[in-house]
Amino acid sequence: MSEASAVVQLSSVTKRFEQQEVLREFSLSIHDGEFFTILGPSGCGKTTILRLIAGFEHADSGQVIIDGTDVSTLGAEKRSVNTVFQSYALFPHLTVFENVAFGLRMARVARTEIESRVKEVLEMVQLGDFAQRRPEQLSGGQRQRVAIARAVVNRPKVLLLDESLSALDYQLRLKMQSELKHLQRQLGITFVYVTHDQEEALSMSDRILVMHQGQPQQVGTPRQIYESPRNLFVASFIGETNVLNAKILRALDDYRYEAELEGRYQRIIHADRRYQPGDDVHVLLRPEDLRIEYLRDAGDKPGFVGEVKDRNYTGRTLDSIIELPDGLQLRSSEFFDEDDPDFDYSINERVWVDWVHGWEHVIPAENLNR
Amino acid sequence: MKPLSRLRVSGLSGLGLLLAGLVYLWLYLPIMLLVMNSFNASKYGHSWQGFSWKWYEKLWGNSALIEAFTNSLTIASLAATGATLLGALLALSLHRYRFRLRKLSSGLVFVVLMSPDIVLAITFLIVFMALGIQLGFWSLLIAHITFCLPFVVITLYAQLRSFDPYLFEAAQDLGAPESAIFTRIVLPMLRPAIAASWLLSFTLSLDDVIISSFVTGPGYEILPIRVFSMVKVGVSPEVNVLATLLILISLVLVCLVPWLLKRKA
Ligand SMILES: Nc1ncnc2c1ncn2[C@@H]1O[C@H](COP(=O)(O)OP(=O)(O)OP(=O)(O)O)[C@@H](O)[C@H]1O
Ligand SMILES: [Mg+2]
């Protein structure tokens, strides 16, 4: 995408708190109208990025550009972005109506217009009948909606949401996830959403930025992030992954290589870039990439043979842990087969395992003390 | 099982009720006696000699006492107002700015709070003499504002600390400049605590004998001191009347606070 369609841009932003450098030469470009999620473990700097965009924090160096204007030195009150706080931060002494009207009053919008815009937004979040309530008289989900209404009524360029759903219980969170997504499409506003919940990130976002210790790890669509993680951190943070160490033996063609896995299995692997013989790589296998068969059915097909160490029926899938002779454990997850309800393994049964060829993902080896 | 446990609970609460009753009796019986005696025709109050307004009339005629009374009310309301204003400023800046002296200055507030009255009284006296301030209205007012100040600061600061700090950021985020955050968020949310601080200061000021007796001059007498000198020669019925009036004032204030707070909310 071209720079022109970037509604938020951070370029070479460095941010320090006292001695600690939280972000170093950090750059980011968020497209107009997208649902952008910043995902990463606790303390990786997600909130800091959001607060830099909102204007609550200021970068030690680098620029923050919103809608083509350098706002690096502007305070939060002068930026055309709004924030939905994790704690909602509703004004306890004001009614729902006045909470939502606050931003418009600050902007000196005409009274009749305030009236109609607040009403419209409250209808949109299904709180039309709650205008005269106070925040303390609302449920968690309703407060959440007021917080969103209070932000979007100002028609910001960008809406910033910091772990906005994490305080809600599981059912409500699912409901609000789809409502948020729906709202974002309806309004066409860019959403920048912060979470440490990878499922939430995958299901809601157009694009995801994965962060680790202040460093961006990968930016991409949920699919890219899940299917082609760029490194071990992304692979293991998003979903479960089996990591096999391998050495490239020789190239068969541009993307197929003969490799030695875990120092003992010679297999053909598919990679999405070029490697040289002798290169160390990791072969990443999602649990659902693995196939298990009874030894008697497998015959002498190439594959691994291991022992079932654990199996767990989750309702939709049968999750197993298979231990190979050298102690390496593989996690597999197979869809439960309705036609074959007996399909199950007993603990310590020896089985045949292989992956669906072509589904593996290969990345350069990282020094990792496993 | 159920009826038994219910029985036990009700037995317990019965006992609790009795205890509470006794405590209230202990607290209020003397006050009730005092109020009754203010209407007692008898001068000594050992026996009921019939209802009478005469002590009230007598008090009304005692212009020195009435003057001390109005002086007290004047000082109390001015001191409460001054202490609340200054205290609010101090609490707000303690809360708002992380200046280096914050620890020190909040420590100083506590020092004033913990000092025995007599120490404060002597300190005031020394300061006023050193500055050449005549003992009287102004010295009294300054002293009262000063000893009320820590209570105001602590009340308001605690209240400010209890606010979600993101509220202020949320307001800023919605386009509110510093001044609007103050007038539309901080002040309205702080209003109950401000009212409470004022009333607390008012009561503290009205109550004070020790410090006042040091820093006031012959030209400006206030009620507690006047009463104190009166009761040295025995409790006169006029003192009962005064006390009754004071109780009435505090009752009105006690009822006023929730009403004030509710009206705002
Ligand atoms: N105001 C501050 N003063 C000092 N250090 C801070 C401040 N804010 C954040 N940090 C530090 O910066 C780092 C990143 O913090 P940040 O809040 O951005 O993390 P996060 O990714 O949002 O984490 P979480 O998922 O726990 O909310 C942390 O190590 C944190 O301790
Ligand atoms: Mg955070």
Q: Your description of this structure?
A:
The complex is a heterodimer of chains A (370) and B (265). Chain A is of the alpha+beta class and 370 residues long. Chain A folds into two domains: 3-236, P-loop containing nucleotide triphosphate hydrolases (Rossmann fold, 3-Layer(aba) Sandwich), CATH 3.40.50; 240-364, Nucleic acid-binding proteins (OB fold (Dihydrolipoamide Acetyltransferase, E2P), Beta Barrel), CATH 2.40.50.140. Chain A has nine helices and 20 strands. Chain A has helices at 46-54, 96-106, 111-124, 140-152, 170-187, 198-204, 222-227, 232-237, 295-298; strands at residues 6-17, 20-31, 35-39, 61-66, 69-70, 81-84, 158-162, 190-195, 207-212, 215-220, 242-251, 256-261, 265-270, 280-285, 290-294, 304-313, 317-323, 329-335, 350-355, 361-364. In chain A, strands 6-7-8-3-9-10 form a six-stranded mixed sheet, sandwiched between helices. A five-stranded antiparallel sheet of chain A has the order 13-12-11-14-20, with no helix packed on it. Chain A has a five-stranded antiparallel sheet with strand order 15-19-16-17-18. In chain A, helix 2 (96-106) packs across helix 3 (111-124) and helix 2 (96-106) packs parallel to helix 4 (140-152). The longest helix of chain A is centred in the middle third of the chain and has 18 residues, at 170-187. The radius of gyration of chain A is 25 Å and the shape is elongated. The model of chain A has no long low-confidence stretch (mean pLDDT 88). Chain B is an all-alpha fold and 265 residues long. Chain B has two domains: 1-31; 54-264, MetI-like fold (Orthogonal Bundle). Helix content of chain B is 81%, strand content 0%. Chain B is built from eleven helices and no strands. Chain B has helices at 2-38, 54-61, 63-96, 102-114, 117-131, 137-162, 165-173, 178-207, 210-215, 223-231, 237-264. Chain B is globular, with a radius of gyration of 24 Å. Mean pLDDT of chain B is 84; it is low at 1-5.
